[in-house]
Automatic annotation (TrEMBL):
Record keywords, A-Z: Glycosidase, Hydrolase
Keyword match Hydrolase: yes
Pfam families assigned: Adenine_glyco
PANTHER family, alphabetized: DNA-3-METHYLADENINE GLYCOSYLASE 1, DNA-3-METHYLADENINE GLYCOSYLASE I
SUPFAM superfamilies listed in its UniProt record: DNA-glycosylase
InterPro entries, A to Z: Adenine_glyco, DNA-3mA_glycosylase, DNA_glycosylase
Annotated GO MF terms: DNA-3-methyladenine glycosylase activity
Recorded coiled-coil stretches: none
Protein name in UniProt: DNA-3-methyladenine glycosylase I
Enzyme Commission identifier(s): 3.2.2.20
Keyword Cell cycle: no
């Protein structure tokens, strides 16, 4: 079965992520929040590192239940910073809590994070023609616009490159290669 060229097929974690999750449209706030956080953790690291630590991150951050993460205590943060099973980058972990609070504000304002984020693509995935993953941009005007708006709303650690990766992962942008069986 043909997959996108960035997928090392011998790696089950990568392959399963590509086949079962990447690019599939998500509309659940909690699932979107988790992906947003995972993409922010990747900054400066490999995606495989993040995938390997995903289960531990879910345990630390209460399965990314937005209200639970927003109420994350100082004691929980101290424990997280000592936990070798996750990426112990203080700014990234603090951004997770901050961004949960920012999502709560968005939910109060517009109803859901899903409605907010999907409004940028008129609630329909953008399907790009991609002959090879090497042709995909790292950011676009859309990801720049969203990153700027999120920053204005108090979100942290989410630049236009991270946002573009998030849009791909959450299915708002379909960047599967044209020959990929999962397009």
């Amino acid at each position: 079965m043909k997959r996108c060229g960035w997928v090392p097929v011998e790696n089950d974690l990568y392959r399963d992520y590509h086949d079962q999750e990447w690019g599939k449209p998500l509309h659940d706030d909690q699932a979107l929040f988790e992906l947003l956080c995972l993409e922010s953790y990747q900054s400066g690291l490999s995606w495989l590192t993040v995938l390997k630590k995903r289960t531990a991150f879910r345990q630390v951050f209460h399965s990314y239940q937005i209200d639970r993460v927003a109420d994350f205590s100082e004691e929980e943060m101290a424990a997280a910073l000592e936990n070798p099973a996750i990426i112990r980058h203080r700014l990234k972990l603090e951004a997770t809590v901050n961004n949960a609070k920012a999502i709560q504000r968005l939910q109060a304002e517009v109803g859901s994070f899903s409605d907010y984020i999907w409004s940028f693509v008129d609630h329909k995935p953008l399907v790009n023609q991609v002959s090879t993953y090497l042709d995909r941009p790292s950011q676009t005007e859309l990801s720049q616009k969203i990153a700027k708006d999120l920053k204005k709303r108090g979100f942290k650690f989410l630049g236009p490159t991270t946002i573009y990766s998030f849009l791909q992962a959450a299915g708002l942008i379909n960047d599967h290669e044209d020959s990929c069986a999962f397009k």
